[in-house]
């Protein structure tokens, strides 16, 4: 039986934009069908709610602070290996078609297939624009084009990405392969043909406490981010709009395009492991915020994650998994599926055992971060250092240059009441804080330091110039020689060890 994985992702799909997550008004029949054949995760999180950084974690198995993509338009480090390279180097074909966003180029990419991936399948947005005339390129960036009768599905990026993916599945029937299919849709400009372009006219999200959040107990960065929305009425924040109608219409359109690919997968690769997710979500007026930025709110970080297990695990159908899950685990999971040892360097775990038995808990805690939104832009708040952790019930966020946040999802599922100063939550708050600092140390977070410890609400733990006092060298020995110990010039015996200081005899 061939070993095959099809990984499908969209850009900016909120969890509640899929019908299978509870809102029957969302017309996503193909992803709903996929969820019915496998596992639907309720507590899956991206590693940073920004396109490039989120993808860097997905396709390297390392956090943005480790691989260098801490902002859009920054490239992966030269010594960072992608999932494609690791698969290729272990004899597995790897193909990627669609939005990449990891080459350090602009929004559309550089149009060049990265090492490790099949160049015949490669098709980023730069390649798409090269196929269009100058006039067509201009039209492809305007939302109004969704209503042009001569701009059918065949003119969209989603349709052409699907064509590439379908061709790959057809050409590699019966072979081992990993195929990533990455759509830009439903990300703006929300171009989708009829009937999708009017399907959600008049739609609005139901009123909920997030639209009433005054942000008074929240970080300043959120109040600045909210702009004029800070003073709007809750009704205005979730009122119907043409933008929302097109956004959701484009979401249903990309579900249709995903269905084209899945139909071929069901026909030619029925035993394949299929994974669907999105890089992040969109606030859409919740907490008076739009788009995404430095926050751990569920609207932008708690992403959809759906799995159809492969190779004889069909009994796990229509199962809801409530354990915390993370994008950081995708690369080690895929390597494990193909029987490839998981390198020490990777910062996640294999979820394969959970695919086979959904009662197994792989993670007790998962982590999220933020450094900067965009290198090219001065706006979006600029530098916003954020590190977050959740155990599935409580969510702690450290905003390094601002006030911090703690939410109890049981009593406050909408994340309105900031409990960071609540003495009754001191024990769980401090426990999560300790675990977050430990995670930053363990993953060699380049931005770690005493400042993350020195929080105004934490009076039982004191900052230290030496922090943990340990040296943590890199272990990438599948591709690099063992690093040398600074104190001896010899290969290190242990990657994590006490840091020696110069011993100068007087």
TrEMBL record:
InterPro entries recorded: Alkaline_phosphatase_core_sf (IPR017850), Sulfatase_CS (IPR024607), Sulfatase_N (IPR000917)
Domain Sulfatase N-terminal, residue spans: 4-340
Keyword annotations: Hydrolase, Metal-binding
The keyword Transmembrane helix is assigned to this record: no
Family: Belongs to the sulfatase family.
Protein name, UniProt field: Sulfatase-like hydrolase/transferase
Taxon lineage: Bacteria, Pseudomonadati, Spirochaetota, Spirochaetia, Spirochaetales
């Amino acid at each position: 039986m061939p070993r095959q994985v099809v990984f499908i992702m969209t850009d900016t799909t909120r969890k509640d934009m899929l019908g299978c997550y509870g809102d029957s008004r969302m017309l996503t029949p193909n992803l709903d069908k996929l969820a019915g054949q496998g596992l639907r995760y309720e507590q899956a999180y991206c590693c940073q709610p920004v396109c490039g950084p989120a993808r860097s974690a997905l396709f390297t198995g390392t956090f943005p602070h480790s691989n260098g993509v801490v902002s859009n338009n920054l490239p992966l480090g030269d010594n960072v290996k992608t999932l494609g390279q690791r698969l290729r180097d272990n004899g597995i074909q790897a193909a990627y078609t669609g939005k990449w966003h990891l080459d350090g180029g602009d929004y559309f990419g550089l149009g060049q297939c990265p090492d490790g991936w099949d160049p015949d399948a490669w098709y980023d947005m730069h390649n798409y624009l090269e196929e269009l005339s100058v006039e067509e390129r201009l039209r492809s960036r305007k939302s109004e084009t969704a209503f042009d009768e001569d701009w059918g599905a065949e003119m969209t990026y989603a349709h052409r990405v699907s064509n590439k993916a379908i061709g790959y599945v057809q050409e590699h029937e019966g072979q081992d392969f990993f195929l990533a299919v990455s759509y830009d849709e439903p990300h703006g400009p929300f171009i989708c043909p009829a009937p999708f372009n009017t399907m959600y006219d008049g739609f609005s999200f139901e009123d909920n406490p997030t639209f009433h959040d005054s942000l008074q107990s929240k970080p300043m960065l959120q109040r600045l981010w909210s702009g004029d929305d800070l003073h709007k009425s809750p009704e205005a924040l979730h009122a119907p709009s043409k933008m929302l109608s097109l956004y959701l219409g484009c979401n249903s359109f990309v579900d249709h395009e995903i269905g084209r690919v899945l139909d071929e997968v069901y026909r030619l690769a029925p035993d394949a492991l299929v994974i669907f997710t999105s890089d992040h979500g969109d606030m859409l007026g919740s907490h008076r915020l739009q788009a995404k930025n430095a926050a751990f709110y569920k609207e932008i970080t708690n992403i959809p994650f759906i799995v159809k297990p492969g190779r004889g695990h069909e009994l796990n159908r229509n199962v809801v998994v409530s354990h915390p899950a993370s994008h950081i685990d995708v690369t080690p999971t895929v390597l494990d599926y193909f029987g490839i040892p998981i390198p020490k360097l990777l910062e996640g775990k294999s979820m394969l055992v959970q695919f086979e038995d959904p009662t197994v808990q792989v993670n007790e805690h998962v982590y999220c971060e933020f450094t900067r939104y965009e290198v090219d832009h001065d706006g979006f708040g600029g530098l916003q250092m954020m590190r977050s952790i959740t155990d599935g019930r409580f969510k702690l966020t450290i905003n390094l240059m601002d006030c911090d946040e703690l939410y109890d999802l049981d009593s406050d599922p909408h994340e309105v009441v900031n409990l960071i100063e609540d003495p009754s939550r001191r024990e769980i708050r401090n426990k999560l804080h300790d675990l977050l600092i430990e995670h930053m140390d363990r993953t060699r977070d380049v931005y770690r330091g005493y400042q993350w410890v020195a929080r105004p609400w934490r009076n039982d733990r004191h900052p230290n110039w030496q922090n943990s006092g340990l040296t943590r060298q890199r272990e990438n020995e599948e591709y690099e020689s063992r690093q040398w110990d600074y104190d001896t010039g010899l290969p290190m015996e242990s990657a994590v060890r006490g840091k020696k200081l110069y011993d100068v005899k007087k």
